[in-house]
Sulfide:quinone oxidoreductase
Amino acid sequence: MDARKLDARLSVAPQIAPEEVADLAARGYRAIICNRPDGEGPDQPAFAEIEAAARAAGVEARHLPVVSGAVRDEDAEAFAQALNELPGPILAYCRTGTRSATLWALAQAREGARPLPDILAAAKAAGYDLSGVARRLANGGRLPRPEAGDERHDVLIVGAGAGGVAVAASLKRRRPDLDVAIIDPADVHYYQPGWTLVGGGVFAPRQTVMPMAQVIPDGVRWIKAAVAAFEPENDAVVLDGCKVVRYGRLIVAPGLRLAWEKIAGLPETLGRNGVTSNYRFDLAPYTWELVRGLRSGRAIFTQPPMPIKCAGAPQKAMYLSADHWLRQGVLKDIEVHFNNAGGVLFGVKDYVPALMEYVKRYDARLNFFHNLIAVDGPARKAVFEVREPDKEPRQVEMEFDMMHVTPPQVAPDFVRVSPLADEAGWVDVDPATLRHKRYENIWSLGDVMNAPNAKTAAAARKQAPVVAENVIADIDGKAPVATYDGYGSCPLTVERGKIVLAEFGYGGALKPSFPKFVIDGTRPSRLAWLLKEKLLPPIYWKAMLRGREWLAAPEPAPAAGA
């Protein structure tokens, strides 16, 4: 019998036989719900047979028949009532288990027991794809209202971060009359690359934030709402509250989610007890406060398993902090540790020699294969899981006076459980055209998609024109005309005033924007620092987000048959 657990009280299964009921009782089940009408199939035992076997085994049984493909609101209400009345654990069954799983999901949504992504994820883990009822789940488990009030756009963009706004601006530059809308619930837009410099005392926080209304491109409709689910088969996006927005083409760019909760004790101690992170706008100033105040002790900088946004950011925080301590004459009394869940300092080897010079300058301890799993803030202790090759996993506890944490990072829940996602939860795209591999009218860019490039704002700056070109080509009935080469940039702030400007594409191929005599990206450069501090912020706000594609012209797609 294939019983699949949905939560602590309920498992679902395909059709069961009367002779299996005693085994169910032996396994601890105390109640059975049948969601299949009698006579639905020629080989189906009647509910009376199941009920008799249940009575003999001391198990309660209830018949709540539901017609396949026609689950009514009353059915979901009756199922929810049964879950509350019957003793658990409970097994519900139908022909395949799908109806029972659907009824459970609708009951969960009706009672507000858990968020929509959690419901879909639990069903998916049990082997049931309930994306077809996502709109109903978003409507509190009830059949949604008629769609007369729903809206439609030629191009719909999910996410108004760097990638979403940039591609909207690029589309409008190419075709000003194009009907474009962006969905995003946020009130403000952040320049996240600036947070490293906030944590290093270079930028003020206000330099990295702007009201969202000021960055949405002219002529683009801003739908200020959160996405609940995707319905790619219907060319539709479902919003919280069950409003439906339809599209001709969809661009998915909501970024990723910082999974602070994956580290035990971390959410409770962030912003206090010496625990900080430049990955949050409100915490970056605390980083600088801790750096200025530390005169002795141990400072730990962590990096979780990939993928993460801006893979160099964890060590940037370390370099800028250690540089400050060196200039203040206190570095000799501070023990600096860089605890990296991976096995290398930086993924592109050409930049490692220059970085290692600074590791030695700051006398930093590199602890590879060390993944932060728990924090006790009041005790100033951190626990790392160490998984070195060919060795048994172990745990190491380290005390700290200051710890800069880079959190694990995952795709947003509404993406992870959607039909757009690959097995790891990221939007599944062709790495060259950034078009979805299964849905031809969907594209993705930025941190949420699964192309094997660095997740940086610089990457989004290059991706936006590629997606814009290919969407316009598709509207015009043409094949993709632009390709993305995997470009990403990571300005590694190795000291205040100098940067190692890492620029690379797919496979670690170097992709410098400037001649070597201007900026040699493999060496620390004062000019690269000026680029980062003085030029890149206005380029971001006034060029990238307005469709001015400075140094971002897309490469043409190979000719057919080439």
User: Anything to note?
Assistant: The longest helix spans residues 457-475. The domain at 260-407 is CATH 3.50.50.60 (FAD/NAD(P)-binding domain). The CA atoms of residues 226 and 377 lie 33 Å apart.
